[in-house]
Amino acid sequence: MQEDRRFVRPRKQLVELLRKKGIEDERVLRAIGKIPRHKLIDTALYPRAYKDTALPIGMGQTISQPFTVAAQTELLAVEQGDKILEIGTGSGYQCMILCELGAEVYSVERHKELYHRAKESLQDLGYKAMLKVGDGTLGWSAYAPYDGIVVTAGAPVVPDDLVQQLSIGGRLVIPVGDENRQAMHRITRVSENEYDREEMADFKFVPLIGEKGWGDK
Ligand code: SAM
Fold first, then answer.
1. How many domains does the chain have?
2. Residue pLDDT, tens place only, 124-136
3. Which single residue of 37, 48, 108, 187 has CA 20 to 30 Å from 63?
4. Residue 13 counted as domain residue
5. Ligand 1 surroundings by CB, under 6 angstroms
6. Ligand 1 pocket mutation pick from 206, 211, 216 by most atoms within 8 angstroms of CB
7. DSSP string, the chain
8. Domain containing residue 174: CATH number
9. What tens digit of pLDDT does each residue of 184-211 get?
10. Residue 109 Cα, ligand 1 centroid: separation in angstroms?
């Protein structure tokens, strides 16, 4: 892949900023330092491609803020070969980070247009992930159980189907709260019927719409 020199420095600066903000997992930082985020957004947004901000990707949706992506990925504690389900494919950026960490990636998106675009971007940039259009609040039972599930939209409650689709030892990272603010939750399945729950800092996500999410307006 031909590197566009214009973006090399801003991408390095983004990695340094994330390090300063507390991201410690070097594998995550390396992935962010490698993936051409500018290729997933409109050319008019190129000057902001490597700023630590969410950016529009159409359909009223966003590519998440890099800090948020890094923080969620760190919480997922991905190991090489882990089977990971993402809810909310969006641009495909989070999928690419997970691929860089050596995960087997599955991702569900409710907007067909975004699904098609993400599929094309992943292919163009040489990443492999299984994508589908659907209601991610129900998970993707055909490939369960997962070592990790990451939800990239804000949920009103933790959807039970997602918890059920975790393997023993599996982690679910999900922002839960009202429409303005969500706390990041990590739920670890410690045995068949036991879960360990942790609650972390506040974030702001677009809403998770679906049967076990917010209603469609
Ligand atoms: N992970 C994405 C990325 O790396 O670009 C960012 C995702 S954006 C913040 C949240 C995404 O979740 C949107 O694309 C939205 O359409 C999707 N979404 C919302 N509710 C969903 C649901 N029930 N099932 C699947 N996708 C959903």
1. 1
2. 999 999 999 999 9
3. 187
4. yes
5. 61-64, 87-88, 90-91, 93-94, 108-111, 114, 135-137, 152-153, 205-206, 208-210, 213
6. 206
7. ----GGGHHHHHHHHHHHHHTT---HHHHHHHHHS-GGGGS-GGGGGGTTSSS-EEEETTEEEPPHHHHHHHHHHHT--TT-EEEEE--TTSHHHHHHHHTT-EEEEEES-HHHHHHHHHHHHHTT---EEEES-GGG--GGG--EEEEEE-SBBSS--HHHHHTEEEEEEEEEEEE-SS-EEEEEEEEEETTEEEEEEEEEE---B-BSTTSBPP-
8. 3.40.50.150
9. 999 999 999 999 999 988 888 899 999 9
10. 6
- Whether 42 maps to a domain, the answer reads yes
Q: Please compute the mean of the pLDDT values over residues 116-129 and round it to a whole number.
A: 98
Q: How confident is the model at residue 5 (pLDDT cuts 50, 70, 90)?
A: confident
Over residues 170-178, mean pLDDT: 97
pLDDT in tens, 84-105: 999 999 999 999 999 999 999 9
For ligand 1, the distance from its centroid to the CA atom of residue 5, given in whole angstroms, is 30
User: Residue 126 sits in which domain range?
Assistant: 5-203
